[in-house]
Amino acid sequence: MSTIPQSDELLAKGLLRWFEDLSDRGIFTTDQSLTVRSWNPWLEAHTGIPAGQAVGKPLLELYPSLSNRRLDSYYRNALAGEVHVLSERFHKFLLPIGRNVPSLGTIEMAQSARIAPLSVDGDVVGTITVIEDVTERVVSERELRNQIAASERARSIAEEASRLKDDFLATLSHEIRTPLNAVLGWARILRTQPRLKSRTRGLEVIERNAASQLRLVEDLLDMARVMSGKLRLDLKTLQIEDVVQAAIDVVTPAAAAKNIEISASFDKGRPAVNADPDRLQQAIWNLMANAVKFTEPGGRVDVQLSKVGSTVELIVRDTGQGISREFLPYLFDRFRQADASASRRHGGLGLGLALVRQIVELHGGSIEAESAGVDRGSTFFLRLPVASSKLEPKGVDARRSSLVTLKGVALLVVDDNDDGREMLVTALRQYGAKVKSVATAREALDVLLESHFAADVLISDVGMPNTDGYEFIRQIRANAVTRDIPAIAVTAYANPEDRIQAVVAGYQAHLAKPVDPSVIAASVASLVGTKPTLR
Amino acid sequence: MKLTAVQEDALIELLNIGFGRAASSLSQLTGHRVLLEVPHVTIHPIDEVTASLERVILTDVASVHQIFSGAVSGDALLILDQAGASMLKELLTNEPALPLSIDASAREVITEIGNILLNACLGTFGNLLKVQVSFSVPQLSLESLAAILESLRVNQEGVKYALVVHAGFKLRDTEVRGFLVIVLSVASLDRLIRAVEDWEQRVP
Q1: By the CB < 8 Å criterion, does A90 face chain B?
Q2: Is residue B103 a contact partner of residue B202, using CB atoms and an 8 Å limit?
Q3: Which of A 70-89 lie inside 8 A of B, CB atoms?
Q4: DSSP class of residue B179?
């Protein structure tokens, strides 16, 4: 039977052919002179070189790049008996073969290879090379690595944000406590020594510190509004020069106290912008206040306003302590402060410039800072688009018409906090109102229903023990006698949601603490239908 | 069986020549300056190798195993603890290693490193003994040290000894330590040590 192989050698040949044909790897052999002796179908398919062309050719002629890449030594070592592993990471590939990968197009096939001696009875007669295509593995490993790197980055960003918030909380506590110390200290002094000569001075300190704390809380709330997208702009067409001048006026006393000269130059064309005057002033005031705060006595602050094409550019340049190159990129980030240490020289929350940027960006503008480095001054560039059309001015601000009289108006004040209640009563009486006050919702209902106090307007705190302001107003609205009495909620909860909740519960108006007595008076006046009249 | 100080010195010197060749291949491949040194060589009966290495390596290891045959035959292994293997891969490839069990590229890199070292070491011995040794294709495995050494012990005829070569890779200010374990028959080991002594006497 001639079809059956007659020797081991023939059997081995048949076996090798079978492996070569079926393998999903490239397999070729050479003899001792490194002439190719076999070239399997995988190699034909991937290199495009048919076995007929490869077999009989010297390997290093078929692939001259093997010598250029010094891989020929691997073959010489193989002839001396050594096996070599060629990892993809170190060699990329053995034979240059193009491979099509979805999403990447044609790339060099990534290969892992083994080069080994072919021995017969202990004598090396040639070499065998096995090539594995690891392109897909390499691509997926790269993706995995990228994902891991991306999640590491995300984690470190989150950790950084959390650390900044911790720093911020520490700063916040400090900043809130500092003015409170002064307020409390002076309040105690004034209570124990009523006839003290420096009484006025003490009251000034209390007022100034309370005002600074209010400013701080307002910054915080503004930031919260910006972050939740709730900061709304009330846009008007206005001359930016007026806003800048107003901001300069505000910081002038502080500058004068430090002997800092402020100089201003304005564009002759008086460019107009569409802006929320209060917000824009807040932003510009912040820039000016920073310039003065961080400039040493005897320095200067230059303010320059000019129209550049369709942009208004405000430049605030100071000769102050400057900004380090490292901190500059983070200048407008929330909670960032160049010096967050406890021993820092300047107070503040690190919210100012973040707010400035948010406000400016809400106006469609931009802000940038430049500094040649520490102690070399800083320059801020605030740019806003020039107004292309004029906006109709809105109605008069309630606060402007606050000089009212409440003569003959009966008010019931409900507040569990004795000081707050007393302040309200005193203030409202000054407007001529007849004011009754109670500490709880229960007492309020008694006064209204049992004592038949005919209140024209109710003014109630929201956060009260037992029955809170929301529950109180629901009871008022549920009772036929009291149902129609207008009511104002006065609360420390100053978010827009709180405002909505108060109105939903049954209040006509919602005012945030601390309230300016003139604002509450104006609100009462509008509720009783009293035309605000000049006193 | 114990090496004399003279024998150990001569073996270390010889191995360092071979490792110099391996280090220069690694430096060329990776573009980093890699130094390899052999501070220490010991000989143990195969049954005691586990105990002696476990004093140094407690965790799971990555091992690269090559069988060699010819006039001298036996098993050669590079053994690294897995953290060391990952570190070596990171240092040599500039990319973070994932756990070896899921990082096929890292396993392959370690296999090639093992291959280079074992070739250098056995090539040196082959030259010394003037015999040609042929090698099997290296295999990497991730197992406990005990499991690896146990697989060497079974199916071995006669008393076997292991030459344990302590190896230190130094690159980029970091050192990664590992071991080469070469398992030989008593006769092969005797021939080797005698050849080393001859070599030592020939070298001025």
Answers
A1: yes
A2: no
A3: 70, 77, 80-89
A4: E
Structure confidence at residue A494 as a pLDDT band (50, 70, 90): low
ipTM of predicted complex: 0.85
Domain enclosing residue B93, as ranges: 5-202
Q: In the predicted model, is pLDDT for residue A400 greater than 50?
A: no
Number of domains in chain B: 1
Flag if B134 and A85 touch (Cβ within 8 Å): no
Does the beta-carbon distance from A89 to B70 stay under 8 Å?
Answer: no
Distance of alpha carbon B11 from alpha carbon B9, whole angstroms: 5
In the predicted structure, residue A395 carries a pLDDT above the cut 50: no
Q: Rounded to an integer, what distance in angstroms lies between the CA atom of residue B115 and that of residue B99?
A: 21
Q: Do B137 and A117 touch (CB under 8 A)?
A: no
Residues 6+ apart with CB under 8 A from A273: A237, A238, A240, A280, A312, A363, A384, A385, A386, A387
Most confident of A100-104, A502-506, B136-140: B136-140
Cβ separation of A83 and B132 shorter than 8 Å?
Answer: no
B124 interface with A at CB cutoff 8 Å: no
* Shortest Cα–Cα distance, A132 to chain B (Å): 12
The pLDDT value recorded for residue A50 is 93
Which pLDDT score, from 0 to 100, does residue B201 have? 81
Q: How many CB pairs under 8 A join A and B?
A: 73
Q: Is the Cα torsion angle A457, A461, A466, A471 positive or negative in sign?
A: positive
To which CATH superfamily is domain A8-133 assigned?
A: PAS domain (3.30.450.20)
The architecture (CATH level 2) of A141-227 comes to Orthogonal Bundle (1.10)
Asked whether the beta carbons of residue B119 and residue A82 sit closer than 8 angstroms, the reply is yes
Kindly report the nearest CA distance between residue A59 and chain B, in angstroms: 22
pLDDT at A53: 93
Domain covering A398-528 assigned CATH 3.40.50.2300 in the classification: yes
Q: Residue A113: phi, psi to the nearest 5? A: -135, 155
Q: Give the pLDDT score at A11.
A: 81
Most B CBs within 10 A among A70, A75, A76, A82, hence the mutation to make, goes to: A82
